Structure formats: C-alpha cells, structure tokens
Amino acid sequence: MTGPGIVEQIRALTAELNAVILAHNYQLPEIHAVADVIGDSLELSLAARETRAEILVVCGVLFMAETAKLLNPDRTVLIPVPDAGCPLACFLTPETIREYRRKMPDAAVVVYVNSTAACKAEADIVCTSGNAARIVSSLTEDRILFGPDRNLASWVSSVVTGKEIIPMPPDGHCYVHQTYSVIDIRKARETGGVIITHPECPPEIRDLSDIVASTGKMVNVIRERPEKVWHIFTEEGMAKRLASLFPDRTFHQPGGVCTDMKKTTITDLLTCLQRRETGIIIPEGIRDAARRSVDRMLDASS
C-alpha cells in the first residue's frame, strides 16, 4: 500500500529532476499508479528511445533497465532494485551464442529482449514477444538461432513459414509460464470466456487457447473485442492491470508470480529518486554492439 505523501513526493521529484518512470505490466499496482509509461518490453523500449527526460527510472527487471541505457547512453538510467533479475535471461550467455555461431555460421542470431546486454551485443537483431514473428520474417536467412526462450522460439516457428528456428539453448524457459498445465486450460474452458496465452507458454497450452499475444497486444485485443469474461495465462500482474483498464470485464488468472518483478515497492522507487545511486553502466564495447541490435529491432518495428 502507498504511504501518506509518498505519491506526492515521487511526483514532485520526477518534475524537479525531469525524470520519467517506465513500468512493466507485471509490476505492482502501486507502481502503476505513479508510472508515466506502463507497457510490455517493446512499448517500454520505444518509450525509452522517444523520451526527452534526463533521468529514466525503470521499474521492472535488470535487462529492461539495460535496454533503456543502451538507447540513452548519455542519460541517467536508474533501477530501484538492482538485483531484480530474470531467470529466463540467465539461460543464455555470450559464450553460448558464439558456440552456436561456430557450428552454424550461415544462421542469423535473434536474441529475445529478455537477455543481458552482453548477449544482445552478440546478436544480429533483438526481438520482443510482441514483434518476434515480424522480426524473424524480415530476415533473409533461412536458418535462425533463437534464444533464450524455447517456447517463444516454437511459437515463432508455428506462425512463420520458410524458416528453420533453432532454440538456443534448447532448455531456456520462463518458470512462470512453464507452470501452466492442460488442466488449467480445461478448467478455464469449463468456466467460459476467452482464453488468451502469452507466447512464452508451452506449445500444448498455446494450442488449446483462443488467442496468443504479448502483454501489450492483450490490451489491444481486449479493447477491440466485446467478450466480458477472459482467462489470462501470464504473470498475475497482467490480470490486475487489465482489471484496472477494463472494469466492466471479468478476468480470471490461474496463478504464477514473477518474484523479481514484485521486488520493487513504491518505497524503493521513492528512495531511488531521492538517492539516485542505482545507475546502469554498460561497458563501451558491449554497449555499441548491443545498441545496434536493439536499434535494428526498433527500426523494423516502426
């Protein structure tokens, strides 16, 4: 819960410092209440590139703050909780990418935005769950090394023709989306309503759903459709976000919490703005190569 005066202090500091707060859809409602931009990874990346703020505060996990810094190397990028990481990102290392490249030099390397800056520096292009299919389709290579999420790779393979998608590594996954089962889908179907799943869900879950969409696209889909009951198969924060956006709809969610996304509290955010000690630093050699991969993605998404 927000304490007395915290919201007012945060808003006063963002105005004084010319700061902008970027928050992922999975963040706590108290963070959403004071954020300037709320969205998925692609939406936050686009906002980071377009903002004129002097300070960017990223309420999310570390790779998101790194991406904001890549797009704004001369600005201060802060993350309220520096140890808010992403277990999915940990599946992939720069050494793994180089090893795959040696084995398949004819393949293009597509790295999911849920990865470290060092991995982005080894990639040809970055993607998000919202634009992965478009990014892969835009490449001239027929063979694609795709990491670190095997489920997202399989979803891209199912919707993009003429490409061989090779997951890199073969076991990368998001533990939240991996927990959903066919039983969860069946229970949702018995309740009635539309079932919408994230591309990071396993294939057997996606195949039984009505719609597969990134969190950003979930908002657009629900806004455009008339159905009143929805089953949201992604991290629980998204269901809460949707309920705030569409109070006339009913949202069911089978569980699944990203503990790192929930580390950031509104008190952490206030302390971050007050002290400004948690700035993101990316070594120059990594920064320039990673920036090229991210810029290439954003240009393809424009």
Sheet of most strands: 4 strands, parallel
CATH class bucket of the largest domain: Alpha Beta
Q: Percent of residues in beta strands?
A: 15-25%
Based on the coordinates given, report the CATH architecture of the largest domain: 3-Layer(aba) Sandwich
In the CATH hierarchy, the third-tier topology of the largest domain is known as Rossmann fold
Order of helices and strands: HEHEHEHEHEHEHEHEHHEHEHEHEHH
Largest beta sheet: strand ordering: 2-1-3-4
- Alpha-carbon distance between the two ends: 38 Å
Query: Overall 3D geometry?
Result: globular
| Number of helices in the DSSP assignment | 15
Structural classification: alpha/beta
Instruction: State the low-pLDDT regions, or none.
Output: none
Rg over CA atoms: 19 Å
User: What portion of residues is helical?
Assistant: 40-55%
Number of domains: 3
Give the averaged pLDDT, no decimals.
96
Number of strands: 12
CATH level-4 homologous superfamily of the largest domain: NadA-like
